[in-house]
Design a protein that fits this description.
Keywords: Cell inner membrane, Cell membrane, Lipid A biosynthesis, Lipid biosynthesis, Lipid metabolism, Lipopolysaccharide biosynthesis, Membrane, Transmembrane, Transmembrane helix. It is a multi-pass membrane protein. Pfam families: EamA. This is EamA family transporter. By secondary structure, this protein is an all-alpha fold. It has one domain. It is built from six helices and no strands. α4 runs antiparallel to α6 and α5 packs antiparallel against α6.
């Protein structure tokens, strides 16, 4: 895998991770909600106009374009497992931004992900 291909994959993964973090930030602003026939419109509008959620959706759109570019250069059997780098990014940023715990069990799982991504990338 060359530098351009790896950069596209990494950029796509980072956009995807950013999208998740923005969606979480948006739901933190909106708060807990349930869709019922009575509130689907007000809740839907609240979600549609929440800037974090809009930003997250934009990140997803751009990440799809970047991902398609990456897949045009790299076999899917190598590219797809690289998405798991997003789990690592999100675990640490969720701890920093939202106070979510990074437990020993999560760190062990992150270690397995790192080893797996390394093995796939070297194949």
């Amino acid at each position: 895998m060359n530098a351009v291909s790896f950069s596209l994959i990494l950029f796509g993964v980072m956009l995807n991770a950013a999208a998740q973090l923005l969606l979480k930030a948006g739901t933190n602003v909106v708060g807990h909600f349930e869709f019922t026939p009575a509130n689907v419109l007000p809740v839907g509008l609240k979600l549609a106009f929440e800037p974090h959620i809009f930003g997250g959706l934009c990140c997803y759109v751009v990440s799809v374009v970047v991902w398609i570019m990456a897949l045009s250069r790299v076999p899917v059997s190598i590219a797809y497992p690289m998405l798991s780098i997003g789990y690592i990014v999100n675990a640490f940023f969720a701890a920093w931004l939202f106070g979510e715990a990074v437990t020993a069990q999560k760190l062990i799982g992150i270690g397995f992900i790192i080893v797996g991504v390394y093995l796939v990338a070297k194949s």
